[in-house]
Amino acid sequence: MSKENGGWRRLWQKPGAKWRLGIPIGGLLFFVAGALGTVGFNVVIHETSSDEFCVQCHGPSKFAAEEWPDHTHYNTGSGVMVTCADCHVAKEFVPKMWRKITAMKEVFYTIKGDYNTREKFEAARHVMVESVWEEMRGNDSRECRSCHKVERMDFDKQKRMAATMHKRMMESDPSAEGYRTCIDCHKYLAHNKPQTDLAKE
What we know:
GO terms for molecular function: electron transfer activity; heme binding; metal ion binding. By secondary structure, the protein is mainly α.
Protein backbone atom coordinates (compact mmCIF):
# COMPACT_ATOMS: atom_id res chain seq x y z
CA MET A 1 0.00 0.00 0.00
CA SER A 2 1.38 3.37 -0.89
CA LYS A 3 2.29 5.89 1.71
CA GLU A 4 -0.49 8.12 0.50
CA ASN A 5 -3.11 5.38 0.81
CA GLY A 6 -1.74 4.40 4.18
CA GLY A 7 -2.16 7.98 5.30
CA TRP A 8 -5.85 7.98 4.34
CA ARG A 9 -6.31 4.66 6.15
CA ARG A 10 -4.74 6.01 9.33
CA LEU A 11 -6.95 9.10 9.08
CA TRP A 12 -10.11 6.97 9.16
CA GLN A 13 -8.78 4.65 11.85
CA LYS A 14 -7.36 7.35 14.11
CA PRO A 15 -8.84 10.69 13.13
CA GLY A 16 -7.43 13.80 14.72
CA ALA A 17 -9.42 16.06 17.02
CA LYS A 18 -10.36 18.46 14.22
CA TRP A 19 -11.68 15.65 12.04
CA ARG A 20 -13.74 14.20 14.90
CA LEU A 21 -15.24 17.62 15.60
CA GLY A 22 -16.47 17.93 11.99
CA ILE A 23 -18.65 14.82 12.18
CA PRO A 24 -21.11 16.02 14.88
CA ILE A 25 -21.12 19.57 13.50
CA GLY A 26 -21.92 18.29 10.00
CA GLY A 27 -24.61 15.98 11.40
CA LEU A 28 -26.13 18.81 13.42
CA LEU A 29 -26.18 21.15 10.41
CA PHE A 30 -27.76 18.42 8.28
CA PHE A 31 -30.43 17.84 10.96
CA VAL A 32 -31.18 21.56 11.33
CA ALA A 33 -31.43 22.00 7.55
CA GLY A 34 -33.75 18.99 7.31
CA ALA A 35 -35.93 20.23 10.16
CA LEU A 36 -36.18 23.74 8.71
CA GLY A 37 -36.96 22.32 5.27
CA THR A 38 -39.68 20.07 6.66
CA VAL A 39 -41.27 22.85 8.72
CA GLY A 40 -41.06 25.28 5.80
CA PHE A 41 -42.60 22.77 3.42
CA ASN A 42 -45.51 22.08 5.79
CA VAL A 43 -46.10 25.80 6.35
CA VAL A 44 -46.25 26.40 2.59
CA ILE A 45 -48.65 23.49 2.06
CA HIS A 46 -50.87 24.68 4.92
CA GLU A 47 -50.94 28.30 3.81
CA THR A 48 -51.63 27.45 0.17
CA SER A 49 -54.63 25.42 1.32
CA SER A 50 -56.22 28.31 3.21
CA ASP A 51 -59.40 29.96 1.94
CA GLU A 52 -57.59 33.30 1.78
CA PHE A 53 -54.94 31.90 -0.55
CA CYS A 54 -57.48 30.08 -2.71
CA VAL A 55 -59.47 33.26 -3.24
CA GLN A 56 -56.39 35.38 -4.05
CA CYS A 57 -54.61 33.03 -6.42
CA HIS A 58 -57.39 30.98 -8.02
CA GLY A 59 -59.58 33.40 -9.94
CA PRO A 60 -62.85 31.44 -9.96
CA SER A 61 -62.59 30.95 -6.20
CA LYS A 62 -63.27 34.65 -5.62
CA PHE A 63 -66.77 34.43 -7.09
CA ALA A 64 -67.41 30.97 -5.67
CA ALA A 65 -66.47 32.27 -2.21
CA GLU A 66 -69.06 35.04 -2.44
CA GLU A 67 -71.89 32.52 -2.76
CA TRP A 68 -70.51 29.96 -0.32
CA PRO A 69 -72.12 31.48 2.85
CA ASP A 70 -75.55 30.83 1.33
CA HIS A 71 -75.02 27.07 1.18
CA THR A 72 -75.25 24.18 3.62
CA HIS A 73 -71.52 23.48 3.72
CA TYR A 74 -71.03 26.93 5.27
CA ASN A 75 -74.05 27.15 7.59
CA THR A 76 -73.87 23.68 9.09
CA GLY A 77 -76.26 22.46 11.76
CA SER A 78 -73.36 20.99 13.72
CA GLY A 79 -71.16 24.07 13.40
CA VAL A 80 -68.43 22.09 11.64
CA MET A 81 -66.29 24.44 9.56
CA VAL A 82 -65.79 23.35 5.96
CA THR A 83 -63.08 25.07 3.92
CA CYS A 84 -62.16 25.16 0.22
CA ALA A 85 -59.42 22.59 0.80
CA ASP A 86 -61.77 20.15 2.54
CA CYS A 87 -63.59 19.62 -0.74
CA HIS A 88 -60.89 20.38 -3.30
CA VAL A 89 -57.60 19.15 -1.80
CA ALA A 90 -56.88 15.55 -0.85
CA LYS A 91 -55.68 14.67 2.64
CA GLU A 92 -53.26 11.95 1.47
CA PHE A 93 -49.78 13.20 0.56
CA VAL A 94 -49.41 12.06 -3.07
CA PRO A 95 -52.91 13.12 -4.25
CA LYS A 96 -52.46 16.38 -2.34
CA MET A 97 -49.18 17.14 -4.12
CA TRP A 98 -50.73 16.24 -7.47
CA ARG A 99 -53.61 18.63 -6.78
CA LYS A 100 -51.13 21.39 -5.91
CA ILE A 101 -49.31 20.84 -9.19
CA THR A 102 -52.42 20.68 -11.36
CA ALA A 103 -53.87 23.76 -9.62
CA MET A 104 -51.16 25.84 -11.26
CA LYS A 105 -53.29 25.96 -14.40
CA GLU A 106 -55.88 27.89 -12.39
CA VAL A 107 -53.22 30.41 -11.39
CA PHE A 108 -52.26 30.69 -15.06
CA TYR A 109 -55.90 31.37 -16.04
CA THR A 110 -56.08 34.00 -13.31
CA ILE A 111 -52.97 35.77 -14.61
CA LYS A 112 -54.44 35.68 -18.12
CA GLY A 113 -57.69 37.16 -16.80
CA ASP A 114 -59.91 34.35 -18.10
CA TYR A 115 -62.26 34.56 -15.10
CA ASN A 116 -61.65 38.05 -13.76
CA THR A 117 -65.28 39.18 -14.10
CA ARG A 118 -68.52 37.68 -12.91
CA GLU A 119 -69.70 37.41 -16.53
CA LYS A 120 -66.64 35.40 -17.60
CA PHE A 121 -66.95 33.21 -14.53
CA GLU A 122 -70.63 32.42 -15.13
CA ALA A 123 -70.01 31.74 -18.82
CA ALA A 124 -67.37 29.12 -17.93
CA ARG A 125 -68.97 27.75 -14.76
CA HIS A 126 -70.53 24.71 -16.44
CA VAL A 127 -67.12 23.67 -17.83
CA MET A 128 -65.47 24.06 -14.43
CA VAL A 129 -68.13 22.15 -12.50
CA GLU A 130 -68.17 19.29 -15.02
CA SER A 131 -64.38 19.05 -14.65
CA VAL A 132 -64.60 18.91 -10.84
CA TRP A 133 -67.45 16.39 -10.91
CA GLU A 134 -65.55 14.15 -13.31
CA GLU A 135 -62.49 14.25 -11.05
CA MET A 136 -64.60 13.40 -8.00
CA ARG A 137 -66.30 10.52 -9.81
CA GLY A 138 -62.85 9.25 -10.78
CA ASN A 139 -61.67 9.10 -7.15
CA ASP A 140 -65.05 7.92 -5.75
CA SER A 141 -65.66 11.25 -3.99
CA ARG A 142 -62.48 10.88 -1.95
CA GLU A 143 -62.67 14.34 -0.37
CA CYS A 144 -66.34 13.84 0.60
CA ARG A 145 -65.40 10.59 2.30
CA SER A 146 -62.65 12.22 4.33
CA CYS A 147 -65.48 13.66 6.50
CA HIS A 148 -68.50 11.50 5.66
CA LYS A 149 -68.08 7.79 6.35
CA VAL A 150 -70.93 5.80 4.80
CA GLU A 151 -69.95 2.79 6.91
CA ARG A 152 -70.63 4.77 10.10
CA MET A 153 -73.94 6.30 9.06
CA ASP A 154 -77.03 5.57 11.14
CA PHE A 155 -79.53 4.90 8.38
CA ASP A 156 -82.43 4.95 10.85
CA LYS A 157 -81.80 8.66 11.39
CA GLN A 158 -81.91 9.46 7.68
CA LYS A 159 -84.84 10.04 5.37
CA ARG A 160 -85.91 6.87 3.61
CA MET A 161 -84.60 7.88 0.17
CA ALA A 162 -81.24 9.02 1.56
CA ALA A 163 -80.83 5.83 3.56
CA THR A 164 -81.70 3.70 0.52
CA MET A 165 -79.17 5.49 -1.70
CA HIS A 166 -76.41 5.40 0.92
CA LYS A 167 -76.94 1.68 1.55
CA ARG A 168 -76.87 1.02 -2.19
CA MET A 169 -73.64 2.98 -2.60
CA MET A 170 -72.02 1.18 0.32
CA GLU A 171 -72.92 -2.25 -1.07
CA SER A 172 -72.10 -1.51 -4.72
CA ASP A 173 -68.90 -2.07 -6.65
CA PRO A 174 -67.45 1.34 -7.68
CA SER A 175 -66.38 -0.13 -11.02
CA ALA A 176 -69.88 -1.38 -11.84
CA GLU A 177 -71.89 0.33 -14.56
CA GLY A 178 -74.40 2.80 -13.16
CA TYR A 179 -72.54 3.16 -9.85
CA ARG A 180 -73.34 6.48 -8.19
CA THR A 181 -70.90 8.17 -5.81
CA CYS A 182 -71.43 11.08 -3.40
CA ILE A 183 -71.05 13.86 -5.96
CA ASP A 184 -73.74 12.40 -8.21
CA CYS A 185 -76.42 13.32 -5.64
CA HIS A 186 -74.76 16.14 -3.67
CA LYS A 187 -73.59 18.72 -6.20
CA TYR A 188 -74.67 22.08 -4.85
CA LEU A 189 -73.72 22.00 -1.18
CA ALA A 190 -71.30 24.91 -1.52
CA HIS A 191 -71.85 26.56 -4.91
CA ASN A 192 -74.65 27.81 -7.14
CA LYS A 193 -75.90 25.96 -10.18
CA PRO A 194 -74.51 27.00 -13.56
CA GLN A 195 -76.71 29.42 -15.46
CA THR A 196 -76.75 27.10 -18.46
CA ASP A 197 -78.57 23.90 -19.38
CA LEU A 198 -75.33 21.93 -19.81
CA ALA A 199 -74.99 20.89 -16.15
CA LYS A 200 -78.67 20.38 -15.27
CA GLU A 201 -79.24 17.47 -12.88
